[in-house]
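User: I've been trying to design a sequence by hand for this structure and keep getting stuck. Would you show me what you'd pick, starting by listing the structure so we're on the same page?

Assistant: Good idea, let's start from the same input. This is the structure you sent:
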């Protein structure tokens, strides 16, 4: 069967269901946009639903679901990685799984839609993309939700100088709402002062500027761009054409030793209906804003934003400020704890953050470090933080942009006999296990990661 036939079949089966639907979605930007697309779709279908956002599908949570008397469950942006566990708890219900994570190899009676079951590539479709294609199949009117699926894909870092395959088709569906421009791919162009954008630019990494406040000021001075106008800090979008050219040239010159110094230019995605300088204008900023809602445990605000609530938009902006502060604090903690809770070895880094970094931020912090240019391409970064339930949340990333290792497999090897769940993708994975197993886990990690590092040296 082709993927589009599978979508049609799932939509057909969905038409048959009755009663209130139980929806479970994921905490990140992709999960929140998935939930928003589904919520709007169900509303249009005249179906009632009850929605919960979770970080992962734990045994405890599934046991709670089992006690509920819903007949139909829909999981979005999660579920494929927990087929066995869901099957053990909900095998007497109708279960829809709309996901794009690596599926477990388990036979179930679930209605399971996942592009990876149809030989699609990892970065071709997000969770929100799966939900969107299903939703469009149900009702053409839902095409107006395509832009949310694009935000989901950006949130899951599927955009890399453009989109691939199905994501591209969804972008086409959203063309009435999204303007694609070629420009300087720097985060915060709409909302942050230019010198801050430069200082915090993990990507592109700018030697002597990234992570260096004074370096950023000196750089602007060097290339002749004024920091302020009318006593106001200027933003990237305030620059004239000439100034923008000076900035781009300046950055490329600074990046001459990097592999592709001109990579700083590429597509930028803007919402046509949003005002300039709004945190919702640039889709990358929009997706970060959604992430901050989820990561600070206020997912309903993120969904409200996607559904156009004015109040949610204001609240989300406050959360974004908090989130930025917390990320900066976490990165400071990382820098201050090198040689202590942060172990830097040849080929890998292990971060034992305990309760010093929020468990919902540990993956984000890891991603920032992996893209910061501070570590050699291919360095594996393993980070851990405690959850309030007494577990350890662990995330694994590879420094740089090549991403050649299967991180999910590596994490499975490290977890070994320790009881826990591994989920995610080849290029970014995570797991959850009991705090009592942390020492054993770290010991395994050191053994396995050093052997990988030695193997690579031999190659
Ligand atoms: Mn996702």
């Amino acid at each position: 069967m082709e993927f589009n036939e599978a979508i049609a079949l799932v939509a057909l089966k969905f038409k048959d269901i009755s009663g209130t639907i139980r929806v479970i979605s994921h905490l990140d930007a992709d999960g929140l946009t998935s939930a928003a697309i589904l919520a709007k779709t169900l509303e249009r279908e005249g179906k009632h639903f009850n929605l919960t956002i979770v970080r992962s599908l734990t045994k405890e949570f599934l046991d709670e679901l089992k006690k509920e008397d819903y007949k139909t469950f829909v999981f979005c942006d999660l579920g494929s990685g927990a087929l066995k566990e869901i099957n053990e708890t909900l095998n007497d219900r109708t279960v829809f799984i709309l996901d794009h994570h690596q599926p477990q190899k388990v036979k179930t009676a679930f209605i399971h839609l996942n592009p990876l079951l149809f030989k699609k590539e990892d970065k071709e479709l997000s969770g929100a993309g799966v939900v969107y294609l299903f939703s469009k199949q149900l009702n053409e009117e839902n095409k107006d939700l395509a832009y949310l699926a694009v935000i989901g894909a950006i949130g899951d870092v599927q955009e890399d100088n453009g989109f691939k395959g199905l994501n591209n088709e969804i972008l086409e569906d959203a063309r009435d709402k999204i303007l694609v421009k070629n420009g300087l791919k720097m985060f915060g162009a709409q909302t942050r002062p230019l010198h801050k954008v430069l200082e915090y630019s993990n990507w592109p990494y700018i030697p002597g500027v990234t992570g260096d406040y004074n370096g950023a000021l000196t750089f602007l001075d060097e290339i002749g761009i004024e920091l302020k106008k009318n006593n106001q800090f200027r933003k990237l979008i305030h620059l004239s054409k000439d100034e923008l050219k000076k900035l781009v040239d300046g950055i490329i010159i600074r990046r001459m030793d990097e592999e592709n110094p001109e990579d700083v230019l590429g597509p930028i995605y803007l919402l046509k209906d949003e005002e300039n300088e709004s945190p919702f204008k640039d889709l990358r900023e929009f997706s970060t804003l959604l992430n901050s809602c989820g990561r600070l445990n206020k997912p309903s605000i993120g969904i409200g934003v996607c559904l156009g609530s004015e109040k949610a938009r204001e609240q989300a902006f406050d959360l974004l400020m908090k989130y930025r502060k917390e990320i900066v604090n976490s990165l400071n903690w990382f820098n201050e704890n090198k040689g202590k809770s942060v172990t830097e070895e040849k080929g890998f880094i292990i971060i034992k953050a305990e309760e010093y970094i929020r468990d919902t931020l540990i993956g984000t912090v890891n991603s920032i470090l992996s893209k910061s240019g501070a570590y050699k391409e291919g360095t594996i970064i393993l980070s851990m933080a405690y959850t309030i339930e007494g577990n350890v949340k662990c995330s694994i990333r590879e420094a740089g942009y090549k991403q050649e290792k299967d991180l999910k497999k590596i994490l499975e090897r490290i977890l070994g006999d320790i009881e826990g769940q591994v989920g995610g993708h080849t290029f970014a994975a995570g797991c959850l296990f009991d705090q009592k197993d942390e020492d054993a886990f770290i010991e395994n990690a050191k053994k396995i990661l050093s052997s990988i590092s030695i193997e690579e040296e031999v190659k």
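That's my pick for every position. To get oriented when you compare it with your attempt: The longest strand covers residues 391-398. The chain has three domains: 3-170, 182-330, 337-458.
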